Amino acid sequence: MSWGREIFLLQCQNVEDAEAKGIRFAGIYESKYDIFHIDWISESNLLVYDYSREFKILYTESFNTINNAKFTENKFDYDKAVISSQALDPDISFQIYPMEKNTRNNRPILYYTNTIITNQFPRRVFILGYKRMYIGRHFEWKEHIQDFVNKKEWLSAFALFVSFAQGKNKTFAGLPIKSQERKDVIREYGAEVVSNYITAIRDENGPPELTTIIKVWKTVVLIVIDLLVSIENYEFLFRDIKRMFENFGIQDLFMDSLEAFIFRNRIREIPNEPFREVVKYYTEKDRISVLQYLMVNIEMRGIDIDYAINLCMEYNLLTALFYFCSHREVSQGGADFLTPIVRALTLCQKNMTDKNAENNELGIKFLWFVSMTINGKMFPSGSIPNDIWEDKVSAMFLMT
């Protein structure tokens, strides 16, 4: 709804919502000029034509959400809601109505209802001038990415993906406002574009087994991992992409490339079967420190916790063992503080005669974890729920 220089955004709440109160104030935009015409052009974007003779596209999520904004001390920056502004034609056709006595600045009332028409789907705009008719379209986010893909500017396309996924750029049409919905559509389309990217590189440069282009594929693997990790599409990365690289004969290159992302704490999820394969690969390469870092930082959902705990026991990965045991869900057997303490104590007793830096570190880890548990602190951060603390700490004291 618009009046003078202001646009008021009102929201009609769902009557099924328990807290619904009918129509509520959702935002306000104040223009520098009188507004002649407004209309929706996409889900969260408005097309505005004002006295400056410019067409503006406004992003409604950047409107001022403070009601009675004129009476607040802090001035709101309304310019940030303007996505684009363009002077198209100074002679846009209009319908003129008789001027009322108290009209602002004694200007006639102009209407553009029949000369500026917007169609939200497929986001087309029809503008009638005196000598020309203009037809425009508001591109959606996928089309902007596809434009870079068509020009083979892959890195620019991937940069847009990351910007969208991280919520830094929400102004494009067709991009869901809700975070989870936005991530879902980005992951789905990202998987399609990444597959096309890998296929295009293979068609242009040949298969990875050619030693002359192995440097190219090293870069490709890093770019693909970086993108899919950034948009949090771990499922596609560790299943489809991993399988694709295996078919190309560069599975070791893929596995080795994961290490840099693991140490930067960017690998947050791995499906269960690929997790086993990653563990097997790094175990055979005797790169246990990589595994320990991965385990401490990975999300536990979707992986075999018992398998992970047994692995920690086998290779004496105490830090990872502390993490997995203390964070185990009820459905996975519940939190277990006893197992890592017993394991750490056993190792300390076994190596008690050896006075080296490794054993000193082992003893410090043991005392640190026991101290945290007794004081109700969860490893590595947070607090142990009271009911779990009473049960598990009591069991620990009974043991001693």
Give a verbal description of the structure:
It contains 13 helices and twelve strands. By secondary structure, it is α+β, with helices and mostly antiparallel strands. The protein folds into three domains: 137 residues, no CATH class; 126 residues; 133 residues, no CATH class. The longest helix is centred in the middle third of the chain and has 27 residues. The mean pLDDT is 83.
Task: Considering the chains and any ligands shown, give keywords for the structure.
single chain, 400 residues, alpha+beta, 4-stranded antiparallel sheet, 3-stranded antiparallel sheet, 45% helix
What is the gist of this entry?
The protein has 400 residues and is α+β, with helices and mostly antiparallel strands. It is built from 13 helices and 12 strands.
**What number of structural domains do the residues give?**
3
From the N-terminal CA to the C-terminal CA, the straight-line distance is 72 Å
- What does the main sheet amount to? 4 strands, antiparallel
SS class: alpha+beta
Number of helices: 13
Elements, N to C (H/E): EEEEEEEEEEEEHHHHHHHHHHHHH
**How large is the share of residues in beta strands?**
5-15%
Number of strands: 12
Mean pLDDT: 83
Radius of gyration: 30 Å
Strand order of the largest sheet: 4-5-6-7
Global shape: elongated
